[in-house]
Specification:
228 residues; alpha/beta; five-stranded parallel beta sheet; 54% helix; 12% strand; disordered N terminus
């Protein structure tokens, strides 16, 4: 009797479906190539902004969304929050170039199950994907320790760090200021009015106990230079 043909990889429907959300086509392409080489994983779709991502999740039903922090039409962490609100069963892994000491805890609190930097090797990214798909929380040891210290500090009444004090939008604007962008450039990048940026800037000054716009600019630039 002839043997039935066998396949080295499981059928496509048995693979874990992944949506890649990043505003750089080359990043999406390279991630897809890397993921599709794995026998148990497949990229079912791509998106460059929040609008496309939400539509893709609705139609493609992925089990995992890989999301960047900086997207064309929104702040990635806001997208994480929207995804978890609309699709509680969807796992989200944040993959970003942004400083993990500032953004990782914020992403996890928004509902992501993991945070990994783009500088990590492919093997680490695949490890993070599989860990998150298993229901684990994936983050570097440094971030895990920082979160534990934050919990302990809060119980002792210690003051909050910059990343804890500012809202998601305020932190985003603060970082843009640190990069040297003007109010008009920030407004254009975030698709909001300059007046709204000014209002956020005033709130940031108040929360950080800074008196003038010059003080805020200096504080933001120094923070970026120090990698805070």
């Amino acid at each position: 009797m002839a043997k039935k043909p066998t396949s080295a990889s499981p059928p496509e429907e048995a693979k874990k479906r992944i949506l890649v959300v990043d505003d750089h086509p080359i990043v999406r392409e390279r991630l897809a190539e890397m993921i599709n080489r794995e026998n148990d994983l497949i990229v079912c779709g791509e998106a460059e902004d929040a609008h496309q991502a939400l539509a893709a999740v609705q139609t493609l039903h992925p089990e995992l969304a890989i999301v960047d922090i900086t997207l064309k039409d929104t702040y990635g962490i806001e997208l994480v929050r929207d995804l978890k609100s609309r699709h509680p069963g969807l796992a989200v892994l944040v993959l970003s170039m942004h400083d993990e000491s500032v953004y990782a805890e914020r992403a996890l609190r928004a509902g992501a199950r993991g945070y990994i930097c783009k500088v990590e090797p492919a093997s680490k990214v695949i490890e993070a994907i599989r860990g998150v798909l298993r229901g684990e929380i994936y983050a570097s040891e440094a971030i895990k320790m920082a979160m534990l210290r934050g919990i302990a500090g809060a119980s002792r009444g210690e003051s909050a760090s910059r990343s804890q004090t500012l809202s998601n939008r305020e932190l985003e604007i603060y970082d843009f200021l640190g990069d040297g962008l003007s109010v008009q450039q920030i407004a254009k990048s975030l698709h909001i009015s300059p007046k709204t940026v000014e209002a956020h800037r005033a709130n940031i000054k108040a929360k950080l106990n800074l008196k003038t716009s010059a003080d805020l600019l200096r504080h933001a630039i120094e923070s970026r230079l120090q990698g805070e």
